[in-house]
Amino acid sequence: MSPSKSETTTVKGMLCMVAGTLLLTSQDGITKWLTTDFHAGEILFYRGIWMFPVLAILIHRNGGMKTLRLKQPSGVILRGMAALTASVFVTVSLMRLPLAETMALVFIAPLLLTASSPFLLREEVGWQRWMAVLGGFAGVLLIIQPGPDGFNSWVIFALLAALGSASRDIITRRLGTHDSAATVMFYTSIISLIAGAVTLPFGTHWPDPGQWGLFILGGIMVTFAHLLIVMSLQMAAAAVVSPLKYLSLVWSALIGFMVWGDIPGPMKMTGAALVVLAGLFIFYRETRAQPAKAVT
Question: What are the transmembrane regions (predicted)?
Fold first, then answer.
């Protein structure tokens, strides 16, 4: 018995999400590699240049220059600033933290989003999701290991990146779908490029051919990654594909081990597992509550 058209589309959506998370995490690995020789502003600028050829193709396919007219300009700019904050702090944290640890801490963004929803989005959050938030924060404590022996102050930058990511998602929820994903990505990239350019007079150097190759690859990868994630959500139900985002933690652990020989300790692995489980539970409760318009 051959699979139905809807089943085939769902499988394609899942594959797009798997590929999108792999590209995005691989790009983070490239960023970590480049932090040895370049500061965050340089990386944002040199990588950002190479996002625009791909974005130009997307914008052309979506209707051309007319799609760049914003219906909610202030909201899109605020979202771009929040995304910039996340990008800057995750780049800074990658200078001194293992890739897998950084990704695990950034993935507390859904927990921050849930915790702030009653105050910023006027959404009710029931006791079960509050318990999941507390469990996720307990996982964060296991990862960062506060105290004189295990604490690494660079985790603060990863936590700030998570805060920026959560802020970006809150603004995205408020924006709705008035502006297309390609349009929002275009202006977000413009903001990052300008911010990176501002830092160049304070210390920069010209990349060599190999480094240019990494910047080009990173710019193309991050753009295609976001495109694949959007396509995934268009082809399959969010409840099916969104949990696959947590594959980023698997990819980051594999890349970190193969490139830098990083092996997370048992406490950090347990903490990461708690963060993932809390995020998945919150997503599960949200998808169950949406049809009934209630939150438990």
Answer: 43-64, 76-97, 103-121, 130-148, 154-172, 184-206, 212-231, 243-261, 267-284
Q: Are 48 and 195 in contact (CB under 8 A)?
A: no
Whether 135 and 78 have beta carbons less than 8 Å apart is answered as: no
- The predicted-structure confidence for 140-169, as pLDDT tens digits, reads as follows 988 887 766 667 889 999 999 999 988 888
- Give residue 281's identity as a one-letter amino acid code: F
Q: Which amino acid is at 56?
A: A
Long-range contact set of residues 255-263: C-beta below 8 Å, sequence gap at least 24: 255/25, 255/26, 255/29, 255/99, 256/29, 256/98, 256/99, 256/100, 259/29, 259/33, 260/98, 260/99, 262/98, 262/99, 262/100
Q: DSSP H helical segments within the chain, as ranges?
A: 5-34, 40-49, 52-61, 73-93, 99-106, 109-120, 127-144, 155-175, 181-199, 209-235, 238-241, 247-260, 266-292
Q: Is the dihedral of CA 16, 17, 21, 22 positive or negative?
A: negative
Count of beta carbons in the 10 Å neighbourhood of residue 74? 8
Instruction: Enter the pTM of the model.
Output: 0.85
